[in-house]
Amino acid sequence: MTTVTFLGHSAVLMESDGFRVLVDPFLGDNPAATVSPDEVEADLIVVTHGHGDHLGDAAAISKRTGAPVVTIVEVANELGEDDVSVVDLNLGGTHAFEGGWVRLVPAWHTGTTPGGATATPAGALIELGGKVVYHLGDTALFSDLALPGKRTPIDLALVPIGGYYTMDRHDAVEAARFVNAGRVVPIHFDTFPPIKTDAQAFKQDVEAAGIATVDVLAVGDQIEL
Q1: CB contact at 8 A, 59 and 29
Q2: For the chain, domain boundaries
Q3: Which terminus of the chain, N or C, has fewer Cβ atoms within 10 Å?
Q4: What is the average pLDDT value for the chain, to the nearest integer?
Q5: Cβ proximity of 138 and 163 under 8 Å
Q6: What values do phi and psi take at 163, rounded to 5?
Q7: Is 113 helix (H, G, I), strand (E, B) or coil?
Q8: Tens digits of per-residue pLDDT, 119-150?
Q9: pTM above 0.90, yes or no
């Protein structure tokens, strides 16, 4: 069994057989978070891109727990200079770990390193406990969202719906259609005023179209795959 816990904004914690994968751990400065960076545990950390609301507390959590940070190479290089353990993937690259793997795939967005240099953003496919989760990261709608699922069937898609900085809930319906996962969880909404949206309307639209089952999670909620 694989569990996915929503930690707020775009942060999630995946767990299976005692192995924990933490994704985009924006916690300390996240007004929606209910867990602090000092409380969360991880064996692997995945960061989709270098913006502060995704990189978040990855460095501090990595140093405390010993969990390496898997991220795009330019972000990894800067984290490594701060003595953070990193896995420096580029788009299309796969890192195997105990019980699974993570692969970085394209996302249409902007991105920077912590130091402000340009760095390509990504989405992340994560296989853990025999289940595959596609965290889209921050992205606009584009048709290549359909490609990862052609190689690897996707059990759960984590889809940004807030608009303004990413696609909105209407484009996210089409994104869910492209990804073709059995279940969808909306992320990256309601944390700040510009990205407030109606997640229940998104759920209704996706399910009415017969695309997927949608779980709208409150911060701290957990689902099983």
Answers
A1: no
A2: 3-217
A3: N
A4: 97
A5: no
A6: 70, -175
A7: coil
A8: 999 999 999 999 999 999 999 999 999 999 99
A9: yes
Cα–Cα nearest to 176, from 138, 198, 203:
203
pLDDT digits (tens, 9 = 90+) for 159-211: 999 999 999 999 999 999 999 999 999 999 999 999 999 999 999 999 999 99
Looking at this protein, which amino acid is placed at residue 177? R
| Beta bridge partner(s), residue 87 | 70
Residue type, 114: P
CA-atom Rg of the chain in angstroms: 16
Topology annotation, domain 3-217: Metallo-beta-lactamase; Chain A (3.60.15)
Q: Is the sign of the CA dihedral 53, 57, 59, 61 positive or negative?
A: negative
- What is the pLDDT at residue 189? 98
Which two structure tokens, joined as six digits, stand for 90?
């580029």
Q: Which residue has the tokens 């959590």?
A: 61
